[in-house]
Write a structure and sequence with these properties.
379 residues, alpha/beta, Purple Acid Phosphatase, chain A, domain 2, 2 domains, 6-stranded mixed beta sheet, 12 strands, 42% helix, elongated
Amino acid sequence: MWIAILIAVLTGTIFGIIYLWFRFQRFGIVLFLAGDRKWLRRLYGSLPLVGIIIYGFFDVVNAIIILLHVMIFWLLADLMGWLINRFRTNQMTEEETVNDEIKRFRPYWRGLGVLLFSTIYLGVGWYLAHHVWVTRYDIVSDKLSGQAGIKVVLFADSHLGATFDGEGFAEQMKRIQDEKPDMVMIAGDFVDDSTTREDMLRACIALGEISTTYGVYYIPGNHDRGYYNSRDFSYSELLEELSKSGVTVLEDKVVDVTDTISIVGRKDKSMSDRRPIDELIMGIDAKRYMIVLDHQPNDYAAESAAGVDLVLSGHTHGGQLIPISYVGEWLGANDRTYGREKRGTTEFIVTSGISDWAIGFKTGTKSEYVVLNLLGETN
């Protein structure tokens, strides 16, 4: 699947460069400066693309994201323009249109509109990725009837160094502390391949400064172990620093946090030695309220059949970008992309993440942490 996505992105990028190169030649300033000299028009039309390519040397992922969005919006604008022209009686060829614009020095309104819309659209996407909202859910269960209300704060996908560094993470933890949580749960991808040791240490210290009633719990995500061994710290060092800060690391482990609540922390799906959920909860009293932390939301059938009460996940980043938001579900990679769902007696919640990965934009979703109020049923 990933190979197919990579091929599609590379193909779209190449097409986008060629397509936008022709479109940039239509701007009034280019036509004015180049006149009827086609070679000069093509040279000036390539300058914006050269800028994008240079930016790509520093941030290739987001350079491609910007280019693809501008290309798609321009294609849509051209399609709309073509449909409008179908109803006109006097149509000119594109070359005739260009020559007419040279003579009259007409502004290229369609291109200007596309660039303005792209700037606003991606600007909003950048804001949604780099600012953190709070999403709240009330969870009611008869298993919690003998338990005073419990406030749980959940976050995932901090990918330290992506949208904030260690100090930025510490500021978010202050916001979480202001919620006065009874528990804090970290559903994986705490760090990334590009995370520095300095940011990792600062973030672990920030977690240690959070005051809770029942503790802070962490499970690993697919990025926490690292893919390319390019970090200046190891996975074992990460777990050691988390433990030093009082964070309970759960890798296929169960812990009882109150008289009625158990937390089940699963290894990430990418780990070959991950235990099945029914085996993992074997021995837990069925009367206890079971919260499962599972980074990737793609084992819903087994978790529902096992009878756990609440499953908390991240990983999907809320779908990240329109129009690919639900591709993971369509391809069967994820059971849910974002939000709350109930299957049988099991509640499932997927958070869009407190930060981002290499892509610096979120469209159709936003960065967040989640506040869960666990409540007993009242008659």
